[in-house]
Design goal:
By secondary structure, the chain is an all-alpha fold. It has one domain (about 1-170). Helices cover about 75% and strands about 0% of the residues.
Length: about 170
C-alpha cells in the first residue's frame, strides 16, 4: 500500500509541477504571493486585463478539478475491491498528498528555485533578488503546507471512505 501511495504521490506531484509551470508562464501574478517579500516588492508584472484574469480563473478552476479529482480518485481506485478501515484510507491519501508537499520543497523550491534559479522561475523585475535563495522561507512554507496537507488528507480520505463504504463496497 505505501509503495503504491508513493508512486501515486509522485504522479500527483508531476501534475502539480505542470500546473505551477503553466501558472508561472501564463499567469505569473497568480503566484506572486508565494514568493518572498523582496521578490513581491520588486516585481514589475503588468496589471492583467479582465480577459487575462478570467482566463487565469478558468484555468485555475479546471486545474483544481483535475488535481483534486485525481487525489479523490487515487483512494477510490486503490481501495475499490476490498473493504478496509478509514485509517488505511487516510494513510494512503495522506501519503499521496504529502508527496507533493515534499516534492515542492525539495525539487521545486530548494533545487529549482534556490539552487538553480532558471530564467523561467524569475518574475520580471526581480532579477538578483535575495529571496530566490531563501531556503528558510521555503521551509516555513513547507511546514504550513504540512498543516494544510493534513487537513486536506483528512477531508479527502473521509469523502473516499464514505463513497467506498456506501456506494462501492455495499
Amino acid at each position: 500500500m505505501i509503495g503504491n501511495a508513493i508512486i501515486m504521490g509522485l504522479i500527483w506531484s508531476a501534475v502539480w509541477i505542470l500546473y505551477v509551470f503553466i501558472i508561472l508562464k501564463r499567469y505569473p501574478w497568480e503566484m506572486l504571493h508565494d514568493y518572498p517579500r523582496d521578490v513581491q516588492e520588486a516585481a514589475t508584472i503588468p496589471e492583467p486585463s479582465e480577459i487575462q484574469k478570467k482566463r487565469a480563473k478558468l484555468f485555475g478552476a479546471f486545474a483544481g478539478l483535475v488535481i483534486f479529482g485525481l487525489l479523490l480518485l487515487s483512494g477510490l481506485l486503490y481501495f475499490r475491491h476490498e473493504p478496509t478501515t478509514f485509517l488505511n484510507v487516510l494513510l494512503y491519501v495522506g501519503i499521496v498528498a504529502m508527496a507533493w508537499n515534499v516534492v515542492d520543497l525539495l525539487i521545486m523550491d530548494w533545487l529549482i528555485n534556490c539552487l538553480i534559479t532558471p530564467q523561467w522561475i524569475i518574475i520580471p523585475g526581480t532579477e538578483g533578488c535575495k529571496g530566490y535563495k531563501d531556503y528558510f522561507f521555503h521551509f516555513k512554507g513547507f511546514l504550513i503546507g504540512c498543516v494544510y496537507t493534513a487537513i486536506m488528507a483528512l477531508l479527502f480520505a473521509g469523502i473516499d471512505y464514505v463513497v467506498l463504504r456506501f456506494l462501492i463496497w455495499k
